[in-house]
């Protein structure tokens, strides 16, 4: 008889909001406009004039200077080993592998660059002064600015990709818009509005969007699967956040007003819940080398699977109720069905 290892507890999923702790990663770092994580280091702008880095394995050692002598730095993106950022009317880059990184102008002649976002070889940018979104082909030896959206925007601020859609914060009108960059004729679509000076945007676990309100100090949480898209939670208040960045399951917050960088865990916790709508699902074998049988009525449209970092995993059901993870890395995965979580262990 085949041994069946049944999951003995059911789990209810809530992103770790109510009980999580907001920690100060580093303080006494002035006027932080932008943050980004690359490898073991967090990079940040300080005082608009320099870029500093913090070793996330040893944050107590404090920040070290990467490059100085800059002016009005805004927006970060990394392509290979190069860090791109806006510097007023220019887009500039430095090589993070260089002993003494030297700023190199990639393109100039803009109004005021605030946001950068990478999609393949294309670096998209928001030109706040000229109310447009453009792009640069970084695979070219001499990238030439190309306007993508040149009308219909008001003060475009931060930008962030979710798959092929570029989300745009329109700062002074307090709204989020988006467009599909793969479309032949990109068209702006409204996502949500009534935001009090949005300055930071990031995504977690496919459908969750975080937006920071600079004036109110709130960080708002949205479920993009719900229509209309409105904030269903305010995870923090009183933070003068100028930028947000998620790396794995950690939310990094640039607190411009508090001269600090904060960190918050977004790992989906597993807490013991009650019954599952009076219907119990069983998963076996578990642990498994990759094939998991599910007993119970469930279809592939009713569940999602995430890895330990909160990233959605594409899987198909085959031969009835079987989930195949044989092509995935060994480790822990979470099957989420109607707000309940089942832990899968692949060895």
Word description of this protein:
This protein is mostly beta strands and 347 residues long. The protein is 0% helix and 51% strand. The protein has two domains: 22-265, Neuraminidase; 270-346, Immunoglobulin-like, CATH 2.60.40.
Key features?
globular; mainly beta; 4-stranded antiparallel β-sheet; 6-stranded antiparallel β-sheet; 2 domains; Neuraminidase; 34 strands; Immunoglobulin-like; 347 residues; disordered N terminus
Task: Write the topology of this structure.
Layout: E1 11-12, E2 22-27, E3 35-38, E4 41-46, E5 50-55, E6 63-67, E7 73-79, E8 82-87, E9 90-95, E10 104-108, E11 113-119, E12 122-127, E13 132-137, E14 146-149, E15 156-162, E16 165-170, E17 175-180, E18 189-192, E19 198-204, E20 208-213, E21 219-223, E22 231-236, E23 241-247, E24 250-255, E25 260-265, E26 271-272, E27 282-284, E28 291-295, E29 303-306, E30 312-313, E31 317-318, E32 322-324, E33 331-337, E34 340-346
Antiparallel strand pairs: 1-26, 1-34, 2-25, 3-4, 4-5, 5-6, 7-8, 8-9, 9-10, 11-12, 12-13, 13-14, 15-16, 16-17, 17-18, 19-20, 20-21, 21-22, 23-24, 24-25, 27-28, 28-32, 29-30, 29-33, 31-32, 33-34
Low-confidence stretches: 1-20, 269-279
Count of DSSP H/I helices? 0
Stated plainly, the CATH topology of the largest domain is called: Neuraminidase
- Helix proportion of residues, in percent? under 10%
- Average per-residue pLDDT, rounded, comes to 84
Structural class: mainly beta
The H-level CATH homologous superfamily of the largest domain, spelled out, is: TolB, C-terminal domain
Overall 3D geometry?
globular
The CATH architecture name of the largest domain reads 6 Propeller
Q: Give the C-alpha Rg.
A: 22 Å
**CATH C-level category of the largest domain:** Mainly Beta
Strand order of the largest sheet: 26-1-34-33-29-30
Can you count the beta strands? 34
Q: Main beta sheet: strand number and arrangement? A: 6 strands, antiparallel
Strand content: over 45%
Question: Cα distance, first to last residue?
Answer: 21 Å
Number of domains: 2
